[in-house]
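Pair request: fold both.
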Amino acid sequence: MSFDNQMIGNRIRKAREDKGITQEILAESMDVSNAYISKIERGRTPVNLDNLDKICAVLETSPEYILHGTNTSTDEYMRNEIIDMLQGCSAEKIKLIAQVIKPIVEYKG
């Protein structure tokens, strides 16, 4: 099984920003360099399991969310997964996706 380092990095960055934590604070709490955190968040360096565990502890999130974009311990996990999928999509692609899902969202059944 392979992982998308870019998506993992995006999720780590989002979780960090949601907690109001800087890269410097995260790096210091893990005893790693700020450059290492930056490389992980940009998808340039894969995160190892030990550091993933540390990141999740500091950011109070699950490895499941960081690796797969889902966190079934919250009611919002599917919403977050959809938001993650939309990141990086062009405006044209987002418009097409909206046209596809609008009838589903508006369905009263």
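--- second member of the pair ---
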Amino acid sequence: MKKTIMTMTTVAVVGLSSAFFSSNVHAETVNNLKDKQEQIQNDRSEVKANLSEAEEKISKVLVELETLNKDIERVNDALKENKAKMDETEQSISKTKEEVEKLEAEIADLEAAIEKRFEILKERMVSYQKSGGDISYLEVVFGAQSFGDFISRVSAVNKIADSDAKLMEEQEADKKEIEEKQDKVVDKLDNLKDMKAELEDMQSTINEQKKQNVEKKNSLKEKKSELVTMKEELQIKDSNLASLEREVKQNISSATAPPAQAVSSNRSESSSSQLSTLSSEKSKGSSNTSAPTASKGSGGMSAILNAGNRYIGNSVYVFGGGRSASDIARGRFDCSGFVSWAFSQGGVSVPASTSGLSGVGSKVSYSNAQPGDLVFFNTYKTNGHVGIYLGGGRFIGSQSSTGVAVANMNSGYWKDTFKGHVRRVR
């Protein structure tokens, strides 16, 4: 009986010890899992922060890519337009050369005719000298032997005199025509020189635009490469995060809660995660709706000076641009087209050519220049470029290499080509 009681007591003690040991082990496992869970949550917060930063960078890159694509498209359009202008100019040069050659041929014919008349007159003078020396027409007439001879001599003298007079008139008329044609040739050649200079400037512009296009394309490729790398890194991080999250959930579920509760917990956490994601996306969406909008300027000089601001960094130089609604909407201007459009924004009408603008208003000295005055530059020809003075040695205009931009006329290229020509429109 005593042995039996002792045996039961031993079994009870062993049973209690086993239960106590099992409970301690279980508690220790749960604590370790909770510590691990806390660490994973911290790691997850850091990964989420990195993911958020990566998404923000990707968003910025996408915006830059879109901007680059628009810039490239704009430059490509400008290249086509300028190439068409260049072809048109080359045709004009060819046509002008033909006109010059035709004028030179006509001049050669006239000079030959003048030389022929001169020989006739010279022969006639020799004949006069041989027949009568320096005898005048009157001596010939009054030397008649009869009335009939007198009439014959008068008629002959009149014919000779009329012929000589006609030859002289033709001679003078041809000389005058030669002078006029020579003046035309000079004008044509001057225009040809200007056209060649404009063609060279146009070629320089196209080369500069091609260079910009290449640079932008290279930048686009680099941005694409960076974007692909970002996406790959993001996918790896996201995959690692998902695996880690599943493992932690499974361990916690098996250690602390029945399957049903674990599923419920998982659903709860999943819902919480979805709400967090939706909240984040909503926050991002709301932040993107606050993009600034351009405001319209007031009338008068303020509108003229500020009209081009919205095109700075968002335009391209096109020969003949700025004279249609389509060009203006797409920011396509040449220098005079931009100036004419900018003044129209302030209710002032001015010509859309540098030659026309160089004669408007009154000329003022550069020392007295005021914002809104026109400033001219001798680029490929005198007054080949024009802009609107802003003050402080700065002007705004459509430059061939930049499109609409503010430039400094007190240094560099613009200082070298500015010769003090300033005009005040008002």
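Observation on the second member. The radius of gyration is 47 Å.
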